[in-house]
Amino acid sequence: METPKTYISELTTDLNPCTIKVKVLRAWCYREANMQTTHRHFEMIVADEKGDKIHVIVNNGRLTFLEKYFKEDMVVLLRNFSVIPNNTSYKYTKHPYKISYDGVETACRSNTFDADAKPETVNRVCEIVKTQLALGNDSKVEPDSKFSALGADSLDTVEIVMTLEEEFGISVEEENSQNITTVQEAADLIEKLVEKKNAPA
């Protein structure tokens, strides 16, 4: 079941679980002497489309994961995190809470802060993904479902993108296709390209 999206200003300890769409404003990491060379302590400051900011502590210290998902100026969806009091002596933001987050399979990239795609577009993408991956009727494909988690390899993803291009009459550039990892990302990009295609010259 998809968790509801909310804004940073609405976050409290009673609101879990939820999903927020945020831009990474600042990110930093450091490694202690006793840590593996592939691991780091990692923290960041993020902001939502309303401009509110919050401090995020990522407990999953895998460097490859951090470098992939949390680059500055990248927009990401975060979910399944804990909201904890921001009661340390030094505060990075004025928000009364901060986020403690393990990062494992609970983040996905998003292109912009644009409004989410219409439900009918998302549903059609879900149907196409299920067909392309030959998933059974009992298989759940939701907006935040990752193609890789559904069993898709790189070739499967290419075929999904090609089918979406044919279905919606659009052309997805290779650079954009590499950023499509979830149903929601695909649906958002489709509507953006359709709107661009239909815009007056």
TrEMBL record:
Listed InterPro entries: ACP, ACP-like_sf, ACP_chloroplastic, NA-bd_OB-fold, PP-bd_ACP, Ppantetheine_attach_site, RFA1B/D_OB_1st
Cellular component terms per the entry's GO annotation: chloroplast
CDD domains attached to this UniProt entry: RPA1_DBD_A_like
Gene3D superfamilies in alphabetical order: ACP-like, Nucleic acid-binding proteins
Major subcellular site: plastid
GO MF terms held by the record: acyl carrier activity
SUPFAM superfamilies in alphabetical order: ACP-like (SSF47336), Nucleic acid-binding proteins (SSF50249)
Domain of life from the UniProt record: Eukaryota
Compartments where found: Plastid, Chloroplast
Domain Carrier, chain residue ranges per copy: 119-194
Known role: Carrier of the growing fatty acid chain in fatty acid biosynthesis.
NCBIfam families: acyl_carrier (TIGR00517)
Family according to the record: Belongs to the acyl carrier protein (ACP) family.
Protein name stated in the entry: Acyl carrier protein
